[in-house]
């Protein structure tokens, strides 16, 4: 596991964060619940993570970088299944009571202790290569939209379409293995509006009226998500004069993009003048968030990110894990945007929406 030495609270959180910030969106238990008994919500999510074990085991078995991968994958599957069974019997075992952050952390710990660093590396590299080849076409289609409001909606829909590439979801992992995923087709197949949380018009209105000086974007998946969804959106912010800080994971988790991978992707996308198809990138910074999970606890981020985010006036949390499963209701000292696709039925039910529904939640801070 990575070191937590030097991790600090995200500076745009209200203080004191102990009372003002809760990372997990869905409450797994309440003070009145018996601490010795697993709650229905905890049990439901323990089962969600148990159902993911076969797909993770299959990925691990195929990791050619790890000696004896099949045996180690079996060890991971048995150990993690055992931990989940322990939590069913005693919610306070293994650092519990469990929530989405703890369950993700336990899974990553067992993978790494079993010898696996990045079981999704091969598929990430493949999807990154596909997305890089499509990047000029996606940007060209966006730039051809003259109306600024319509262009923003197209970029937002691109974020949703890219965000469907998520191999942490059992259903999506199976669909990817069977059919692959097409970004342009996904753009056309988004669930119809109104979405479960739909602040699009509000955000469009503010987009026209406001000029943010610095935006911090917490990003999610590799492939189409980061390259065809987030980067065209970030490029548009740059074109408007906004400084953009993109915060990516320090260590691999599922198929999330890492800081190192994103740095390499940008080196391939920029031209000899350092531009992203005609847009100057001198105000674009890539930063290590300090995170090593597919979810995000903003009470602990890297010092580098905290320094860069101290004067931000827009925070964007993208993806199921960072902007919906965690931080959906987080308040900030600056404007914030939470955007992503709902990929778990349990979350859809909690929000009162549909599976694969979309969330765009914009909060403006009055100066």
From TrEMBL:
Q: Name one GO molecular function term.
A: metal ion binding
**Gene3D superfamilies from the xrefs?**
AF1104-like (1.20.1700.10), Uncharacterised protein PF01937, DUF89, domain 2 (1.10.285.20), Uncharacterised protein PF01937, DUF89, domain 3 (3.40.50.10880)
Q: Which GO terms describe its biological process?
A: coenzyme A biosynthetic process
A Pfam family matched by this chain, by name? ARMT1-like_dom
**Keyword Zinc-finger attributed:** no
Q: Does the keyword Manganese apply?
A: yes
User: Which intervals hold domain Damage-control phosphatase ARMT1-like metal-binding?
Assistant: 50-359
InterPro entries listed in its UniProt record: ARMT-1-like_metal-bd_sf (IPR036075), ARMT1-like_metal-bd (IPR002791), At2g17340 (IPR016949), At2g17340_3_helix_bundle (IPR035073), Type_II_PanK (IPR004567)
Q: Which cofactor does it need?
A: Ni(2+); Mn(2+)
Record key words, sorted: Hydrolase, Manganese, Metal-binding, Nickel
User: What would be one Gene Ontology cellular-component term for the protein?
Assistant: nucleus
PANTHER family listed in its UniProt record: 4'-PHOSPHOPANTETHEINE PHOSPHATASE, PANTOTHENATE KINASE
Name it: Damage-control phosphatase ARMT1-like metal-binding domain-containing protein
Its source organism is Capsella rubella
């Amino acid at each position: 596991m990575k070191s937590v030495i030097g991790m600090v609270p995200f500076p745009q959180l209200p203080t004191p964060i102990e009372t003002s910030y809760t990372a997990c969106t869905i409450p797994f238990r309440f003070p009145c619940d018996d601490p010795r008994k697993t709650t229905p919500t905890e049990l439901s999510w323990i089962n969600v993570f148990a159902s993911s074990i076969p797909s993770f085991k299959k990925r691990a078995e195929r990791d050619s970088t790890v000696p004896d991968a099949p045996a180690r994958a079996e060890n991971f599957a048995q150990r993690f299944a055992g931990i989940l069974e322990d939590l069913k019997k005693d919610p306070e075992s293994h650092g519990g009571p469990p929530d989405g952050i703890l369950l993700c952390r336990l899974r990553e710990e067992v993978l790494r202790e079993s010898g696996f660093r990045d079981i999704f590396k091969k598929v990430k590299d493949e999807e990154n290569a596909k997305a890089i080849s499509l990047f000029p076409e996606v940007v060209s289609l966006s730039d051809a939209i003259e109306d600024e409001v319509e262009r923003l909606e197209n970029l937002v829909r691109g974020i949703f379409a890219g965000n469907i590439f998520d191999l942490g979801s059992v259903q999506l992992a199976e669909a990817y293995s069977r059919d692959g995923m097409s970004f342009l087709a996904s753009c056309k197949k988004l669930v119809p509006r109104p979405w479960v949380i739909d602040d699009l018009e509000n955000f469009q209105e503010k987009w026209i009226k406001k000029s943010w000086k610095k935006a911090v974007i917490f990003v999610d998946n590799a492939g189409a998500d980061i390259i065809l969804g987030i980067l065209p959106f970030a490029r548009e912010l740059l074109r408007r004069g906004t400084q953009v800080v993109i915060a990516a994971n320090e260590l691999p988790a599922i198929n999330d993009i890492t800081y190192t991978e994103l740095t390499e992707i940008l080196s391939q996308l920029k031209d000899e003048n350092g531009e992203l198809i005609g847009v100057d990138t001198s105000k674009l910074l890539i930063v290590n968030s300090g995170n090593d999970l597919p979810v995000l606890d903003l009470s602990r981020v890297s010092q580098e990110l905290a320094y860069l985010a101290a004067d931000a006036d827009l925070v964007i949390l993208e993806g199921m894990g960072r902007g919906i499963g965690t931080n959906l209701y987080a308040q900030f000292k600056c404007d914030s945007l939470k955007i992503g696709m709902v990929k778990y039925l349990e979350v859809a039910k909690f929000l009162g929406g549909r599976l694969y529904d979309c969330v765009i939640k914009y909060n403006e801070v009055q100066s």
